[in-house]
Amino acid sequence: MIPICEALENAARIGGKTGLNCIAGLIDTNDVDRIVAKSSPAGPLAGVPVLVKDNIDVEGFPTTAGSLVLEDNFSVNDARVIRNLRRNGAVIIGKTNLTEFANYVSPLMPCGYSSRGGQVIHAVNKELNPLGSSTGSAVAVAAGIVPMAVGTDTCHSITACAWGNGICGLKPPAGVLSQEGILPISRTLDSAGAMAMNMTDTLRLYSAMRDEPLPEIRPKTPADLRIAVNVFQADVNDDEKKTFLDELIRFLKAKGARMREVNEPFAPQVATIMKWEFRPSLEEYLKKSAASLKTLEEIVAYYEANPETMMKYGDGFLRGALDETVDGSLTGTEYLEAMEARKKAIREIQGEISEYDAVLMTGPTSIMHFCGLPTVTVAFDRKDTNGVRQTVILYGKDECRLYAAALAIEELVNRHTSL
User: Fold this and answer.
1) Annotated catalytic residue 157
2) Is 75 marked active-site?
3) I need a surface site. Which of 204, 305, 309, 407 has the fewest CB within 10 A?
4) What pLDDT, on the 0 to 100 scale, is given for residue 416?
């Protein structure tokens, strides 16, 4: 693992404003001993430097969600997932930039941009979209600044930027990790999650974020793998990704995996749930925070009163959450219908995939986030023409079966470099 001082040096040099711009703030090098002493010296992550997305409370840092409007929101306590990490030995060395408000300011905002942090640059190729909203965390891992980083995921905010930067990412089942001390979008859909270069380290980080550790996860044997292939929107991939996915499916079948196709579509109700839950979820967090502005109405007013700094890409999501919901309550017909549709989808999707260890996503869909299913991005040693490691996104009904399948697929593919 990377020593703490080396990680800090890398973060300042590579991840700072003259480099990839993925760093929102770092501990002082003169304060390293005190910060290290806050973590268990004997935990499973003892001495491992970890960076944290800047919408999660870390004592001594502001939690800004990348917005200038929250620069005064200094955290006096750690979020619960951060307390768990320290209890398990991780050393929190700083925070990462993100898409502003976890990509809930405007549909026009580029991934990785924020008014406070500027634009995060892709870890491998500056011309590529860094994707997601946990962008700085993904880039910091992909660039080798830290071995592990924490993100949050509402709808592909971890899995997409892991996919785009060639690393592993994990969004656990809804409700498994505490949301205490995390600036929210949707209490129904949000979750913190883990990012690392391989599945083993990703699972180690996730286990350390939990109140109770994961049970031991071992790779499934190839002949025991049961994989569903979600073919929804598979045709939108470019030729290189299509070829890789086709080769992967043939390879897994040849190794004995039992596979069949499913068609599990995009869930438009995700946007409805986010819009209705954003205001009450945000204001619940702000009420307990050090931020001077405590309501969405005050925040929108600040954006629109400062167009040069705050309105580069507009504020469509913020304005919609303010104007198109009912006083922050969760009583609107549109919202209630979306939540009923979610209950129905959970029953149907869980029933359809219950016998499978994992579902392989071949085209963009949000069904796994709509249903609160565990989801992972698995990265392989094979690189695409841009020099980024090839990745796939898997989801499933049971998290332990999913992680065992992900470990198996990672191991199989990396052992057979001809794929």
Assistant:
1) yes
2) no
3) 305
4) 84
Return d(Cα 120, Cα 109) in angstroms, integer: 12
> Which pLDDT score is estimated for 157?
97
The answer to whether 56 and 151 are in contact (CB under 8 A) is no
Q: What is the pLDDT of residue 245?
A: 96
Q: Looking at the predicted structure, is the pLDDT value of residue 417 above 70?
A: no
Q: How does pLDDT run across 299-312, given as a tens digit for each residue?
A: 999 999 999 999 99
Q: What is the pLDDT of residue 99?
A: 98
Active-site option among 157, 191, 281, 366: 157
Q: Is 115 annotated in the active site?
A: no
pLDDT of residue 329: 86
Query: What local confidence, expressed as pLDDT, does residue 418 receive?
Result: 63
Out of 133, 134, 281, 366, the active site residue is 133
Q: Which one from 39, 53, 171, 186 is the annotated catalytic residue?
A: 53
